[in-house]
TrEMBL record:
Glycosylation sites: N97
An annotated GO cellular component: voltage-gated calcium channel complex
Name of the protein in its database record: Voltage-dependent L-type calcium channel subunit alpha
Record's subcellular location: Membrane
Length: 949
């Protein structure tokens, strides 16, 4: 009955049928199940391989720890958890006096993390793939068997599993989502055409009506001339009103008004940023006065625009509506605070709205305005995905309450914060799992709540795995819908508009590419790009000529001619015909010279202890050949050459001043680590990548500015909400600094007989919001997802200013952190990635900028040039043909696949402390499978011969 009740949590999915955009997303996810199934098999295959490897290497290695001799008491240092140890070899030793290393310990995480059997080994490997807590597992294995070689297992697991295989899942999902969006767009084309025709007909009728009305108005004007004398006063008033509105309209569009508003925004920012914990009363009074004055100025600006533009025209602009909302809430705040009918929390919320005034600067900064508009369009495009993500969180929160509600209570342990005891707390816990932060710790608590690492408790791990996979890898990472076709269609139009306006600011390319960063990210993540055709390999058909085949830029650069010597003299001494200069030119353009320099750079990087620059002669040769700096094409006119010169000059200076101990010399010696950068100027491919990076850095200037502006706004909100509220006494019974005096008794967890007398201290959290700088640092830490739940629960427990924490005092405050993570960590960080990817793609297309073929046509030509007929080997010998016929049949392939699966099951059948009978059976089966696979090899050698195989 309880299992049937759990299906009630699927009721929120009924909302999907009422939202067409959600149907598109759901259809794309459902249709991606088939290709996703193949990727899932690949992931499962990889996890199984590494699980069997871990089973063979680390079986029964995680159950030894340090015990006090003759007792069952685990010996640990204070505030440290038990860890594995080794009785022999290079593992961890028991260094506490009177202790010994012996078996009997369940293992790390209450016996959940180990490689004793295939099931737990797969769970441990999957946790490592998610990159959560994998370093702890690595260190535990090092403690158990030594640190010489386990790092190879874990680093390859992370590289292959986390960085490669999981991205294949994202590529499949993004591709299916793009196809579904295109289908939905095609279905809506006909409806748009009908609406356009209807609008044209309505516009035609409206224009005819206006023309007729103008004719009638002219007739009435001619008939009413005799009555004009009666209304001269009203006409004069209307005339003056029109004149004043024209003057006001000119003023609000002038540069003087523009700089006036910018100055007000700057002063408003300054007034908000000066707020901090324990500020003086005079500063508080100044901030209140400044807020009232600035509010009146912004209200004056709003009324001037309303009068100059008229109410209908004023409210057409979204920025004007935004201004009206901010000013209205500011006026309401003053009224409610003056009347004293608002709570402290309500006042803080209203004051936070003041920060929205900072966004006024985007209206007057054209490049930022374009960027913000593009960001808003992107937000609209992912709104349906955010709604689906919310439904997903709600469903799994309700299911978690059904399965784990009220069960996270463990004896002799404090109650964990991430629980499913209430709906708000379940929402927070599910969102934490979606971010991937400490999701494994919540899973451990869930397993222990249902009986520990035995059946059926271990089955609850399926809930957390599905939640992490579906939420983190499908919904969260699918928040980048493909808008490539739409944006490419508008690209030329936007370019023309920007050139016509002559807008100053970020490069036009940066402004245009903001909206299409999502499609480029998905193209990069697509595991099957259009260029990867079948038969695309490094082995070329010798019958196909090489000349018409397009070559990449790196290949073209290898065959470039040497840069000629400039006509000007070098160092005012060596002319163009000087023999020594010609010799230097031949040396520096020789391939062996470049390779030797790269070798010296490598040796210099490895042996930085050698305090002399290696081979400074190359600079003498290059400066002699091309000149120093004065004429075009000289050595110092190239930024990469300047980098080389800087590195060697630093080495020379540090060597010449070796006996000195001043800080400048120390800084110069530190700069020697720049030596590896000299390889950039030698390796052409690396140089191209670095150039792309610099171009990308130039284009993300406004993205950085908007991100910093948002971070500043959230930091100001955090100061409003949490300043002085993260203080706590080491004695949790004391709530104020005045009472946090003297000494108290500290009992050890789960051991009331062990106590310690400690001094009470009133301490603040390392991450806090006491001022704007601390707030921005705390938010930056949150944006990396590292340890953000700890800061979240500090905020939830926060009380009044300079008061101690109260458990779950303000659960609703978690909305602040969730919005920040979605907006900054999920959305803005993907924009950074998108900009870099777009820049790399543009730079990669530069080699084809003069080509008349587009990308798809070039790929077709490349495929046609590289296509080769399939070769099928059929032996002529009748006996060999019989063997060939057998090994190429589908039945033989099915048989071998079955044998591989059975062999995998045999390898996974092993477990810790297995009986001698199981060990003997496993060895016999392995021998049998080895013989069968050897027979397969012999048959294929007979059928295909060694050369064909």
């Amino acid at each position: 009955m309880k299992a049937l009740r759990a299906f009630r949590v699927l009721r929120p999915l009924r909302l999907v049928s009422g939202v067409p955009s959600l149907q598109v997303v759901m259809n794309s996810i459902l249709k991606s199940m088939l290709p996703l199934f193949h990727i899932t098999l690949l992931v499962l295959f990889m996890v199984t391989i590494y699980s069997i490897m871990g089973l063979e290497l680390f079986k029964c290695k995680m159950h030894k720890t340090c015990y006090y001799t003759g007792t069952n008491i685990i010996a640990t240092v204070e505030n440290e958890k038990p860890a594995p140890c080794a009785q022999a070899g290079n593992g961890r030793r028991c260094n506490i006096n009177g202790t010994e290393c012996r078996a009997g310990w369940p293992g790390p995480n209450q016996g959940i993390t180990h490689f004793d059997n295939l099931g737990f080994s797969m769970l441990t490997v999957y946790q490592c793939i998610t990159t959560q807590g994998w370093t702890d597992i690595l260190y535990w294995v090092n403690d158990a068997i030594g640190m010489e070689w386990p790092w190879i297992f874990f680093t390859t697991l992370i590289l292959v599993g986390s960085f490669f295989v999981l991205n294949l899942v994202l590529g499949v999902l993004s591709g299916e989502f793009t196809k579904e969006r295109e289908k939905a767009k095609s279905r809506g084309e006909f409806q748009k055409l009908r609406e356009t025709q209807q609008l044209d007909e309505d516009l035609k009728g409206y224009m005819e009506w206006i023309t007729q009305a103008e004719v009638m108005d002219n007739d009435q004007e001619g008939q009413g001339k005799t009555q004009d004398t009666e209304y001269n006063g009203c006409k004069l008033a209307r005339k003056w009103n029109r004149w004043l509105r024209r003057k006001c309209r000119v003023y609000v569009k002038s540069k003087l008004f523009y700089w006036w508003v910018i100055m007000l925004v700057f002063l408003n920012t300054l007034a908000i940023a000066t707020e901090h914990h324990k500020q003086s009363q005079s500063l508080t009074n100044w901030q209140d006065t400044a807020n009232k004055l600035l509010l009146s100025m912004f209200a004056l600006e709003m009324f001037m625009k309303m009068y100059a533009l008229g109410l209908p025209s004023y409210f057409i602009s979204l920025f004007n509506r935004f201004d009206c909302f901010v000013v209205s809430t500011g006026i309401m705040e003053l009224i409610l605070v003056h009347m004293g009918i608002m709570s402290i929390m309500g006042i803080s919320v209203l004051r936070c709205i003041r920060l929205l005034r900072l966004l006024k600067v985007t209206r007057y900064w054209t490049s930022l305005s374009n960027l913000v508009a593009s960001l808003l369009n992107s937000v609209r495009s992912i709104a349906c995905l955010l709604l689906l993500l919310f439904l997903f969180i709600v469903i799994f929160s309700l299911l978690g309450m059904q399965v784990f509600g009220g069960k996270f209570n463990f004896p002799n342990q404090p109650k964990p914060r991430s629980t499913f005891d209430s709906f708000p707390q379940a929402l927070i816990t599910v969102f934490q799992i979606l971010t991937g932060e400490d999701w494994n710790a919540v899973m451990y608590d869930g397993i222990m709540a249902h009986g520990g690492p035995t059946m059926p408790g271990i089955l609850v791990s399926i809930y957390f795995i599905i939640l992490f996979v579906c939420g983190n890898c499908i919904l969260k990472e699918a928040n980048m819908p493909d808008k490539a076709s739409e944006e490419k269609a508008n690209l030329a139009k936007k370019l023309a508009e920007q050139r016509a306006k002559g807008v100053e600011g970020i490069p036009t390319t940066a402004k245009l590419k903001i909206d299409e960063f999502e499609s480029n990210v998905n193209e990069i993540k697509d595991p099957f790009p259009p260029a990867d055709f079948p038969g695309d390999d490094e082995e070329e058909d010798p019958n196909i000529p090489e000349s018409p085949r397009p070559r990449p830029m790196a290949d073209l650069q290898l065959k470039e001619e040497a840069v000629p010597m400039p006509e000007a003299s070098s160092f005012f001494i060596f002319g163009p015909q000087n023999k020594f200069r010609k010799l230097c030119h031949r040396i520096i353009n020789a391939t062996t010279f470049t390779n030797i320099i790269l070798l010296f750079i490598l040796l210099s990087s490895v042996s930085l202890a050698a305090e002399d620059p290696i081979d400074p002669m190359s600079f003498r040769n290059q400066m002699t050949t091309y000149g120093a700096i004065l004429h075009k094409g000289s050595f110092c006119r190239n930024s990469f050459n300047i980098l080389d010169l800087l590195v060697v000059s630093v080495s020379l200076l540090s060597m010449g001043m070796e006996s000195s101990a001043i800080s400048v010399v120390k800084i110069l010696r530190v700069l020697r680590v720049l030596r590896p950068l000299r390889a950039i100027n030698r390796a052409k491919g690396l140089k191209h990548v670095v150039q792309c990076v610099f171009v990308a850095v130039k284009t993300i200037g406004n993205i950085v500015l908007v991100t910093m502006l948002l971070d500043f706004m959230f930091a100001c909100i955090g100061v409003q909400l949490f300043k002085g509220q993260f203080y706590a006494c080491t004695d949790p019974d004391k709530m104020t600094e005045e009472t946090c005096k003297g000494w108290y008794i500290k009992y050890q967890e789960g051991a009331l007989h062990e106590m310690e007398v400690r001094k009470r201290e009133w301490i603040n959290s390392e991450l806090n919001f006491d001022n704007i700088f601390n707030g921005m640092l705390a938010l930056f830490t949150i944006s990396t997802f590292e340890g953000w739940p700890k800061l979240l629960y500090k905020a939830i427990d926060s009380n009044l200013e300079d008061k101690g924490p109260v458990y779950n005092n303000r659960v609703a405050i978690s909305i602040f952190f969730i919005i920040y993570l979605i907006l900054i960590a999920f959305f803005m960080m993907n924009i950074f990635v998108g900009f870099v990817i777009v820049t790399f793609q543009e730079q990669g297309e530069q080699e084809y900028k003069n080509c008349e073929l587009d990308k798809n046509q070039r790929q077709c030509v490349q495929y046609a040039l590289k296509a080769r007929p399939l070769r099928c080997y059929i032996p002529k010998n009748p006996y060999q043909y019989q063997v060939w016929y057998i090994v190429t049949s589908c039945y033989f392939e099915y048989l071998m696949f079955l044998l591989i699966m059975l062999n995998t099951m045999c390898l996974g059948m092993q477990h810790c402390n297995q009986s001698a009978h199981v060990t003997h059976l496993s060895d016999m089966l392995n021998v049998i499978f080895t013989v069968l696979f050897t027979v397969e090899m012999i048959l294929k050698l007979m059928a295909f011969k060694a050369k064909v195989c």
